[in-house]
Design brief:
- The protein has about 475 residues and is α+β, with helices and mostly antiparallel strands.
- It has three domains: about 15-100; about 110-225, no CATH class; about 245-420, Intergrase catalytic core (hpI Integrase, Chain A, Orthogonal Bundle), CATH 1.10.443.
- The chain is about 45% helix and about 15% strand.
- The protein has helices at about 15, 80-100, 110-130, 135-145, 170-180, 185-205, 215-225, 250-265, 270-280, 285-290, 325-335, 375-380, 390-405, 410-415, 420-425, 425-440, 455-465; strands at about 20-30, 30-40, 45-50, 60-65, 295, 300-305, 320, 345-355, 355-365.
- The strands form three sheets. Strands 1-2-3-4 form a four-stranded antiparallel β-sheet, covered by helices on one side. Strands 5-6-7 form a three-stranded antiparallel β-sheet.
- Helix 3 crosses helix 6 (about 185-205), helix 8 packs antiparallel against helix 9 (about 270-280) and helix 9 runs parallel beside helix 13 (about 390-405).
- The relative contact order is 0.06.
Length: about 475
């Protein structure tokens, strides 16, 4: 027969003072107890619990010194309530560790990140047709996983977050990591980094659900919903800066500069056609580079834009976007004599064969936005718009549709986004458009037959009579 625990009165310092020397216990639950060991000079707290991972054996761990003077919190001394709380937390963590270890190696944040990075690298390799590091790999290596010395770049140590066991991940772990990010990291980089980290942790939880506490998804959601330490006015999306909304004249200057640089640098029309496509459709770079030859429908005066790959799951289909005949004419050389399933926009690939000497190796589609960085710097400076970014072409296309009084739902559909995002980030231009519509609805209400005397006329007559 199991021994029945005899509980002692431990809740107050006065009650503990009447106890004899030795160990005295209070039950925390059926298999865990808080102990008070009374000594000659002072008492200490410790906790004992059944070790689920090793049969019926019990384990114990110290909690801290007891406050046997009074029942008020004191530095370095624990009251009964403080000791009870610490004991429960210790047992809960130990049981979670034992449960996770019983079903295989402990899953850490590092393991979750590495699995996510491997998937992102494989996805990019499948899309681009060549091996390489994904953007997620670069971000997580720099700010979570750490990386060795790369060229002139010094080695970066791993964040303490990477060593935390996933089942034991708490709000404080994520909050500490977030607060320790360098102050000069751009808000957009922080946002993308947070998205990567959240996706990796959620994927790891889904893959190890049976070993994880049910509260983990809530912990992840709460941690990433908290406001960042950076001054980021739009935490869940890039702020639309008014200075990036380009006029038609600004866009014409950019296109002119793109044509000139295309000719001077031997792009053979590849750069110009890319910029034209971005400006005319307002699509994201990742969508424009996936346009096929058959997506250009001259008879209908439109281009079919592949849907974005944002979000979970695979998405198929395309969105029709009307374009002018001038745009269709600019794209014609890229589609003439080519199969419908070929990428519309391509560029020459080159390899270095000597000092400052390059050799063309063949043509292929644009792979990522980094390929546009250098030519964009040249063309924006030539156009006299040194601060403009490529995404300004998308911003401007959306605002152009709003100013044309197109239904917001149509503007959102043409740009493969949601009505909520349009209303959130482009509210100023929506209000301006509504004011203009409202002004058109104003009609004269007063009769014009002279039967109503205007107030101003009445005052003038009264003044004259005096």
């Amino acid at each position: 027969m199991a021994k029945v625990l005899k509980e002692a009165e431990l809740t107050t310092a006065k009650a503990r003072s009447r106890l004899p020397m030795g160990e005295h216990a209070r039950r925390l639950d059926a298999e865990a107890h808080l102990y008070y060991r009374k000594g000659v000079r002072a008492g200490v707290w410790f906790v004992r619990w059944r070790n689920w991972g090793a049969g019926a054996n019990y384990k114990q761990a110290p909690i801290g010194s007891a406050n046997d003077i009074n029942d008020k919190p004191a530095e370095g001394l624990l009251t009964y309530l403080q000791a009870e709380r610490a004991g429960r937390e210790h047992v809960e963590k130990a049981r979670a560790d034992a449960k996770a270890a019983a079903e295989g190696p402990i899953v850490t944040v590092r393991m979750a990140m590495e699995a996510y990075v491997a998937r992102r690298d494989a996805r990019d390799e499948g899309r681009n047709g060549r091996a390489g590091r994904s953007d997620a790999n670069r971000r997580l290596s720099r700010y979570v996983l750490g990386q060795g010395k790369r060229g002139k770049q010094a080695a970066i140590p791993a964040s303490p977050l990477s060593g935390v066991a996933l089942h034991a991940l708490g709000d404080s772990d994520l909050a500490t990591w977030r607060s320790n990010l360098p102050a000069d990291v751009k808000a957009t980089t922080v946002r993308r980094l947070m998205n990567d980290l959240r996706a990796a942790l959620n994927a790891a939880y889904d893959a190890n659900r049976a070993r994880m506490p049910a509260s983990l998804p809530g912990t992840i959601k709460h941690a990433f919903a908290a406001p960042a330490h950076h001054d980021d006015p739009v935490a869940d999306g890039e702020a639309v800066r008014e200075g990036q909304i380009l006029s038609d004249a600004d866009i014409s200057r950019l296109l002119k500069a793109a044509r000139e640089i295309d000719t001077e640098d031997g792009w053979e029309g590849d750069l110009f056609r890319l910029i034209v496509s971005l400006a005319a459709t307002g699509a994201r770079f990742s969508q424009v580079v996936r346009i096929k030859v058959g997506d250009v429908q001259r008879a209908q005066g439109r281009v079919m834009i592949p849907v974005s790959r944002k979000g979970r799951g695979g998405k198929n289909g395309a969105t029709p976007v009307p374009v002018g005949s001038d745009v269709l004419d600019a794209l014609l050389p890229a589609s003439t004599g080519r199969p419908n399933d070929a990428p519309l926009l391509e560029r020459w690939r080159q390899k270095q064969v000597g000092p400052a000497k390059w050799e063309r190796t063949g043509r292929g589609p644009w792979l990522n936005g980094a390929e546009l960085r250098r030519p964009w710097i040249a063309l924006k400076n030539r156009a006299g718009l040194p601060n403009v970014i490529p995404y300004a072409l998308r911003y401007s296309s959306i605002v152009r549709g709003i100013r044309a009084n197109l239904p917001i739902r149509l503007v959102a559909a043409m740009h493969d986004t949601s009505v909520a995002m349009i209303e959130k980030h482009y509210a100023k231009w929506i209000v301006d458009g509504l004011d203009e519509l409202a002004a058109r609805a104003v009609v004269p209400l007063l009769p014009q037959d002279g039967s109503v005397t205007q107030l101003a006329d009445h005052r003038r007559k009264a003044a004259h009579s005096e």
